[in-house]
Model the fold of this input.
Amino acid sequence: MSAWFETTRRGARSVHEPWVPEDAHSVVSMASIATYGDTVHTFVERKNYHGVFLAGFRHVTHDPVVRPVGLKYIDHVVGNVGWNEMNAMVDFYRDVMGFEMFQSFDDKDISTEYSALMSKVMSNGNGRVKLAM
Done:
């Protein structure tokens, strides 16, 4: 679980050391780190897994409750960090996770007479993961 080893080496606090759930289809490697508030990121390595999703999951074909929703991708995830913690979390995602600043918004970009939004969007190296704070 190289992502867990590298991020904890760079200063992330481990929530769960690597563990390996397995079933008849092979094994999955998983490990978790803490980020902001109660938020935990779990790394999942499925390269040696050949089942449906993760160990213990099964393919369901005849359940009347299970219907496809059409979800193919997640554009971004929003995380609300504490007051005056945004820059520290931007530094965390840059220094620990290897993310880069993708976009930044402040009160000049998004505001009303009574409110304003400040947000920084971090992205991983290939652009598939975007986290707005």
Remarks:
- Strands lie at 14-19, 22-23, 26-27, 29-34, 40-45, 77-78, 100-105, 119-123, 130-132.
- The domain at 1-67 is CATH 3.10.180.10 (2,3-Dihydroxybiphenyl 1,2-Dioxygenase; domain 1).
- The longest helix spans residues 86-95.
